[in-house]
Amino acid sequence: MSDSGSSSGSGGRSEREAIADLMADYVHFIDDDRLEDWVELFVEDCSYRILSRENVDAGYPLELMSCDSKDMLRDRILSLREAVLYNVHTDKHVLGAVRVSGPEDEDEDGVRAWSVQANYSLYQTTANGETRLFSVGTYRDRVVFSGGRALFAEKTVVADTFTVDRLLSTPI
Amino acid sequence: MSDSGSSSGSGGRSEREAIADLMADYVHFIDDDRLEDWVELFVEDCSYRILSRENVDAGYPLELMSCDSKDMLRDRILSLREAVLYNVHTDKHVLGAVRVSGPEDEDEDGVRAWSVQANYSLYQTTANGETRLFSVGTYRDRVVFSGGRALFAEKTVVADTFTVDRLLSTPI
Amino acid sequence: MSDSGSSSGSGGRSEREAIADLMADYVHFIDDDRLEDWVELFVEDCSYRILSRENVDAGYPLELMSCDSKDMLRDRILSLREAVLYNVHTDKHVLGAVRVSGPEDEDEDGVRAWSVQANYSLYQTTANGETRLFSVGTYRDRVVFSGGRALFAEKTVVADTFTVDRLLSTPI
Predict the structure, then answer these.
(1) Among B63, B123, B160, the residue to mutate for chain C (most C Cβ within 10 A)
(2) What global pTM score does this model have?
(3) pLDDT digits (tens, 9 = 90+) for A103-119
(4) Of A55, A95, B59, B107, which is most buried, counting CB atoms within 10 Å of its CB?
(5) What's the DSSP call for residue A30?
(6) What is the DSSP string of chain C?
(7) Searching chain B, which residue's CA lies closest to the CA of residue A51?
């Protein structure tokens, strides 16, 4: 019943399909607590940020979480693994329709990026099976292809919901 | 980070992909308050209706909102722009799987329509970041192609949730 | 406005598209109370189970509902049709991104199966239009092709939400 592989690495699909699969892997890896696989969906020189929409709209993008490289993401995961509080809740993402536009023209390094946007709703369930809505928001991402794989160059979570009770910053 | 373009107009994709993109643009344009772009997703001679499921099932399709042309939609948007109450909440749609069937045979004008169905959940977030479920329901649409673009000929929102506190009819 | 057909049987699409359509048909047929059509999405020798995630994680997969053949599913539907309590609520599924991997190698019968995973949120609405979240969880399925159609060989619903007030086991 479990799925041990990633669907975003297999061949024979269009770039759009590969991007849709990357977006799906992203949320399922978090939900299934496969954070070590999750970090492999990013390029080394990546950006990962969680912002609140209210701050984005006001022009003050206060960051709830910010990592400027894959190494920082790895450190963050190590911290989460050591923290007692993590895994108290079960996450469940429902990912809405994925909008893809691109690719853009090549940058100075010959890389072509795609812009990707998708809404999500994220639910958390306690150990006794009670579920509540935790966050809704939008992913606003840039995806590149490296070695035939779709990977996140930039992942930006713009959360509509501004929750004050987050004890520890976990990925959304 | 923002996305200024529409993904539904680009070429090189199948008709099914173009329809899926149209459905995605529809919800993102509402959520991003791009209502002037949103109205361009409809043909001139379009129909836009919001119904409650309870009335549909009972055979009395009381319409919560009804526009019989693109001009009426434009007027509605102008009214919303002038209304103080609009934009008090932030909308966020999560669009479920899109079912596409068709195309039908050509009509008398040589147009072939596709039937499209998709569920949605719509959340609203207040200025202080509190999110609540506003509506769930189903889009039951007819899509045509004009000048290579997928556009709504009929957009019908059948809302399961019957909310009494809507001060102003806004798109769902 | 209604859709009388199934989108999962039409030709000219890739296997991945057919699988995505099957997943979409599954939820829409439940929501639209088309349970007799719904059962036709399964092979005769199918497995259908609803589990709670808490039990899966603990290694005790207590089954909230379990059918080991299409005939058992048919019986279940007959029971639901005879039950007074059914249809008190309206279901609405929002299906998240569908992850497809496969196909696997042929089994001894020459059948090749695909692994499919997708999250869902399921809402229920009462007769007076009030909507509440009923369940979130993950489908972990195996799909095969028979006569050119995608069908469920195994459908396993792993529900995060553990609701105690289910009077009658209905499909999720």
Answers:
(1) B160
(2) 0.89
(3) 988 888 888 999 999 99
(4) A95
(5) H
(6) ----S-SSS-SSS-HHHHHHHHHHHHHHHHHTT-HHHHGGGEEEEEEEEEEEHHHHHHT---EEEEESSHHHHHHHHHHHHH-SSTTSSEEEEEEEEEEEE-PPPP-TTS---EEEEEEEEEEEE-TTS-EEEEEEEEEEEEEEEETTEEEEEEEEEEES---S--SS----
(7) B1
